[in-house]
Amino acid sequence: MKNTYKTLIYALTFFSAIVIGISSAFAQKTVITGTVRDAVTKETLPYVSIFFNDTRLGTQSDLDGNFKISTNEDYNKLKFNYVGYEVLYKSIIVGQTQKLEILLKSNAQSLNEVTIIAGKKVRYSNKNNPAVELIRQVIENKDKNQPKAYETVQYKEYEKMLFSMSNLSEKFKNKRLFRNYQFLFQEQDSTKIGGKNLLPIYIQEKLADQYLSFSPDKSKTVVLAEKQVEFDNRFIDNQGMKAYFDRMYQNINIYDNNISVMSNEFLSPIANSAPTFYKFFITDTLKNITPNVVELSFTPRNKGDMLFEGKIYITMDGNYAVQKAAFGVNKNINLNFVRGMEIALDFEKNTDGRYYLSKSNLIADFGISKNKGLGFTGERSVSYDQYKTNVEIPDTVFSGKKLEVLEGANKRTNDFWAQNRLDSIPQQQLKIYSNIDTLQKLPSFRRTVKLVTFVFAGYWDFGPYEVGPTNTFYSFNNVEGFRLRLGGRSTPALSKRFYFENYAAYGFKDEKWKFFLSGTYSLNNKSIYKFPQNYIRASFQRDTKIPGQELQFVQEDNFLLSFKRGVNDMLLYNDFYRLDYVKEFENRFSYNVGFKKWSQTPAGGLFYNDASSNSFINRLTTTELSVGFRYAKNEKFYQGKIYRIPIIDRYPIYNLKYTAGIKGFFGGEYNYHNIMASVDKRFYLSQLGFSDVRVEGSYIAGKVPFPLLSVHRANQTYAYQLNSYNLMNFLEFVSDRYAAINIDHNFNGFFLNKIPLLSKLKLREIVSFKAIYGGLRDENNPEKNNDGIYKLPSYENGTQRTYSLNKEPYMEGSVGLGNIFKVLRVDLVKRFNYLDHPEVTQWGIRARVKLDF
Q: Which residues form the signal peptide (predicted)?
């Protein structure tokens, strides 16, 4: 569910601004469409740069040479510019819609070595293919053409991120609902993708000094200036939104084997394995520049794979470096919501004759429909300047944090930005800062955002206090019956130091009240929901709990989880007294220290019976002290209204926790020690997709009854849970030591994309495997020892209900289809062993909602 919350909240961020008012065209608009072709061969030319007069207001032709561009200004010429062709100026009629056929003349000479033979179409092959031989030379020389070939590199970097609404109609603009928001329609631009009208709604800029050292590897980013559109933090987390955009739009290094775009990994056209997945063609040779450059076109062998198509320009000076690149994705690619994508990379010659990246630009058009309707266009451009190599960088530069933001970086004046931007910025884009500020002051807009936030995030904001989450207001189970709950939490509007959270719930079957109250004090004067956390919290909770059910991102009384299979009558009444301290560091290391007094009472079909006397035990009390450590390199978050959600990346996440139970301390009845460790890692396998792998283990030292053992995570709902065993029953297995592995692999449609007709459904194949091996020492096994421990639970008819894993590991696996209607994953799950246990099934179908690109 976490990805669902994340995506819906982002949709809220932009659609709130959209729904408030947007448009497409004005009277007297100049609209030009057309096709660009080679003057001799009449072949269409992709990625031709097209500008009004000599401005930077322009577009590019698409892969078929088509273009559309529009303006409200009095420009009377279009400039067409393409590598290897003469620049062409074409007169246009101001204020009219017109169509042009553009013919560009080549100014390049042909290679004598290239011979073109007409006749029967030849089957493509890598063997004896000069284009493939050339790309192999590029691959062989990759290392020396990257920054890591130098001892040190330093440069200045300017980054601009822009999000706009696209494909907006005049009818939409003139709706009565938007009469107060006409100021948003004053400035419009023409997009580089699809010729749709754009209205910017979000912009962020950053200027930084970058320092890299490769012997040893060290890096430092010094942010000199930064600014962004600021939305109301009560509804939208600006820093979390920025982190998510950064994850979607990462720096593009064409020399990497894989390029991360839209949270997906694309195989680079110059990856080591590129000749296996791409077709390459030499399409031009430029001999009128020094060094000579070869234009190399490439396209996927299979149009549905996560691959690019476009052109790269290779220097013929022995370095085989990339001088320029222009590429995008095929419209048939298995990528959700992306209507089009274009990437442009420009390189400049360094003082040593090699090339460095001087500018990169990524633009993508999004929409629910692939071809029509409202959409978004996101663009990230990065410019680089003052590039220096092998210049000694003092060690003091790398001291401290890897990312250093200078004091006052977010308060730079407009004059500072005008003088220090490394790239020009249109005036209509700058207006977005003031437009959003004006928009957020309008009561009607604030009411709209508040309502949409309540629907998607689940909280209704009352200023200093917010009520929610909505998905817990009503639920049911076999013990409590019909259950109502109401609660909420304070916001930074009440205090930036003190935070409170509470709820009350009532079960109509057991006729008991449950409640929760916590108070948190922020030690760093920041919101406790933001990174880095540093707080102390005291809490008390009296509520029910399913033994072993630990849900990371949803509450157990979530309405959707009320629907369960099989016998589901075991519950605990719990009293928790807790005191927790949490400290996070900028390097993503964190630790927590905790005190917990826990009193539990069995309910429903769960009973605690002494193994020696068979007497009923009504209450079990323990007192615990714990310390936990966590490290997640380069981790980024999206902070929603309910949870802070980590953005999954390639770096592993390490967890280590030690818990000590102390007998006689605040009523604790047992001494024990529990050490638990886990590692989570996503492995990207290029065209074969990615695997999410989790390895964990635990060891409990001491003699304890089964409620204090490791109760393995089971799932009796119909939802597929990633970190639970989906065909294991609640409290079916307990252990005092265990090791487990969980592998969830998504092929991203690698196989289904190659099947005709079926490929149009954009389905994605998923396989998973989970195994856990554990056991009980004799001192904790009631079959071998009955001194001071409890009998394992059984059904009313006396059949055993809870077991140990002494015989063999529990194993289950699944095969599934993801991306059904772009939102649904359905798995067929198979349980491989322990099939003789009562109330178990060998097969099951589970579903999971997931919105993603």
A: 1-27
